[in-house]
UniProtKB/TrEMBL annotation:
Record InterPro entries: DNA_glyclase_Znf_dom_DNA_BS, FPG_cat, FPG_Glyclase, FPG_N, H2TH_FPG, Ribosomal_uS13-like_H2TH, Znf_DNA_glyclase/AP_lyase, Znf_FPG/IleRS
Organism (species): Lucifera butyrica
EC number: 3.2.2.23, 4.2.99.18
Name the UniProt record assigns to this protein: Formamidopyrimidine-DNA glycosylase
Active-site residues per Swiss-Prot or TrEMBL entry: P2, E3, K59, R264
Pfam family name, one: Fapy_DNA_glyco
Residue ranges constituting the Formamidopyrimidine-DNA glycosylase catalytic domain according to the UniProt record: 2-115
Signal peptide residue numbers: none
Quaternary state and interactors: Monomer.
Record key words, sorted: DNA damage, DNA repair, DNA-binding, Glycosidase, Hydrolase, Lyase, Metal-binding, Multifunctional enzyme, Zinc, Zinc-finger
Reactions that this protein is recorded to catalyse: Hydrolysis of DNA containing ring-opened 7-methylguanine residues, releasing 2,6-diamino-4-hydroxy-5-(N-methyl)formamidopyrimidine; 2'-deoxyribonucleotide-(2'-deoxyribose 5'-phosphate)-2'-deoxyribonucleotide-DNA = a 3'-end 2'-deoxyribonucleotide-(2,3-dehydro-2,3-deoxyribose 5'-phosphate)-DNA + a 5'-end 5'-phospho-2'-deoxyribonucleoside-DNA + H(+)
GO term, biological process aspect, one: base-excision repair
Transmembrane segments: none
Length: 274
DNA sequence: CTTCACGCCTGTCAGC
DNA sequence: TGCTGACAGGCGTGAA
């Protein structure tokens, strides 16, 4: 479900609510979502810890807890985190319930149950390879034009697949990759190393612009995504190509096409993207 | 090392 | 109405 803008929006909406709160107990209704350590150990470690800070890296959320522990959550396709007071309805697909000392709850809900949770001391985060091997993310100081040029230079795979590789760039997913390529005027099946300097520069700017817009609009809601307050995002109203098959391109009026690239649904304007 | 197909899960929707 | 197949915002694994 969520990509960088959605996870960042969840972080912002949840942060002020969970910070400083102490976890009284944890109910684990679907233990297989816990990837490290075992579910009983996870429960034991998290219980009675205080949330110090809520951070994000790519699409991972990191709850920094007291005693140097970090709870890591990846929402994958349909994971959702809700903060709620006891009077509010519980999501039908709730699999974990964290109850705070004041009675409020943090719910982890997930329709397809592909999400993953971990808890470990900060010094052991290297265990999560997707986190420790993640490339620089858009809008960060490490994500520069020369970095993008370097990773494109020797790769002959499709540009779309490269942009989805979290080890190269962290945080981009299917929506924002399609949108970035549309804004840059680049066809998703172009070989990465075939981009000109001008196209690479346009792509660099497009990625940052699209991610910033996604954050500014509080994320994109197609179906499942909600922020930490259970509210939908707004960026779906600003999409150029994603989910717009057979609708008209706002620039040239051509019909947006949908194909498959690297096994992922892919949307582009056949007239504007080369 | 890069690239690709596949599996993991469950729900929704279009088409027949 | 009921059924079937395609599709879904992600990523780890194993094979070529």
């Amino acid at each position: 479900m969520p990509e960088l803008p959605e996870v960042e929006t969840i972080r912002r909406t949840l942060s002020k609510k969970v910070q400083g709160k102490t976890i009284r107990c944890v109910e684990i209704l679907l233990p297989r979502l816990i990837k490290w350590p075992s579910a009983p150990e996870f429960q034991a470690v998290v219980t009675h810890k205080t949330v110090k800070n809520l951070a994000r890296r790519g699409k991972y959320l990191l709850f920094y807890l007291s005693e140097g522990q970090v709870m890591v959550v990846h929402l994958r396709m349909t994971g959702r985190l809700y903060y709620r007071t006891p009077d509010m309805a519980r999501d039908r697909f709730t699999h974990l319930v964290f109850t705070f000392e004041n009675g409020d709850e943090l719910l982890y809900a997930d329709t397809r149950t592909l999400g993953t949770l971990y808890v470990m001391p900060e010094g052991e985060l290297w265990r999560i390879s997707g986190l420790s091997q993640m490339g620089p993310e858009p809008l960060s100081a490490e994500f520069t034009l020369s970095y993008l040029q370097t990773i494109l230079a020797k790769r002959k795979g499709k540009i779309k697949s490269l942009l989805l590789n979290q080890n190269l760039i962290g945080g981009l997913g299917n929506i924002y990759v399609d949108e970035s390529l549309a804004l840059a005027g680049i066809h998703p099946e172009r070989a990465a190393n075939s981009l000109t300097d001008e196209e690479t520069k346009n792509l660099f700017q497009a990625i940052n612009q699209v991610i910033q817009a996604g954050i500014d609009h509080g994320g994109t809601t197609f179906r499942d995504y909600r922020n930490g307050e259970g509210k939908s995002g707004d960026h779906q109203r600003h999409l150029r190509v994603y989910g717009r098959k057979n609708q008209l391109c706002a620039i040239c009026g051509s019909k947006i096409e949908r194909t498959e690239v690297g096994g992922r649904g892919t949307h582009y304007c056949p007239h504007c993207q080369h």
